[in-house]
Write a structure and sequence with these properties.
Layout lengths: L5 E6 L5 H11 L6 H10 L3 E9 L1 H29 L15 E11 L4 E8 L8 H15 L5 E6 L3 H9 L3 E6 L10 E6 L5 H18 L3 E3 L1
Parallel strand pairs: 1-8, 4-5
Antiparallel strand pairs: 1-2, 2-3, 3-4, 5-7, 6-7
Length: 224
């Protein structure tokens, strides 16, 4: 009998970059280079990146058994070092179904002096419409709340109706327009803000929304 996968949200790690780049290629025609993510994780103290992962215990156990059985402890250590030292662009990833941890979504947040700015939210194409983007937004808002930031901002393509609907569900308002903001097709971007994530009224509504998300999509392990 196959062991069920588990879904979790955790802090992004350097080893997640190759999978995050896969998601970026699906989601954005122009994307950050691998070095930009590495720099964000290692040097930008304002940045907080989160990933949603799908864990397959069978893949994890099988990969560990293979490493020990065929190469021994030293061989496994050498393989791990080679994986760490290889550049993100050089790494060959196994098929999706063979990964012990499949990254299914990513969100980035910059904690600025007067606002929390969401810089990216992206979900793997095969895992869209499963509540992952909403979970990432929920956690981004909770990060802002935990750090006393009442204002959360972001930009969104004017044509991205599903994303706009999600943000408006959580009370984000369109407060501006950035003409020709996106470099790939020069599409405009709406500037969206939610300025009261610490208010009692928002907290009540937010609690209802998060409970509804769990009822609809199930429980995710939160590890941040």
């Amino acid at each position: 009998m196959r062991i069920a996968t588990r879904q979790a949200l955790r802090t992004m790690r350097l080893e997640d970059i190759p999978q995050v780049l896969e998601i970026e290629r699906e989601s954005f025609p122009t994307m950050w280079p691998p070095t930009a993510y590495k720099r964000e994780l290692e040097q930008n103290r304002l940045a907080h990146y989160l990933v949603v992962v799908e864990r397959n215990p069978e893949s994890l156990a099988g990969s560990e058994a293979h490493d020990v059985g065929h190469h021994g402890a030293f061989g496994r250590l050498f393989g791990e070092l080679r994986h760490i030292l290889a550049s993100e662009e050089e790494r060959e990833l196994p098929p999706l179904e063979e990964r012990a941890e499949l990254v299914t979504g990513v969100a980035g947040l910059w904690m600025l002096a007067d606002e929390a700015h969401i810089v990216t939210v992206a979900v793997r194409e095969s895992h869209r419409r499963r509540g992952i983007a909403e979970l990432l937004l929920i956690q981004a808002i909770q990060h802002a709340q935990a750090r006393g930031q009442a204002l959360v901002t972001l930009e969104c393509r004017v044509s991205n109706e599903p994303a706009l609907a999600l943000y408006e569900k959580y009370g984000f308002e369109r407060v501006g327009l950035r003409p020709r903001y996106y470099s790939d097709n020069h599409e405009d971007a709406y500037v969206l803000t939610q300025s009261s994530v610490l208010s009692r009224r928002f907290l009540t509504r937010f609690g209802d929304l998060t409970e509804d998300h769990e009822r609809r999509w199930g429980r995710f392990d939160i590890e941040v």
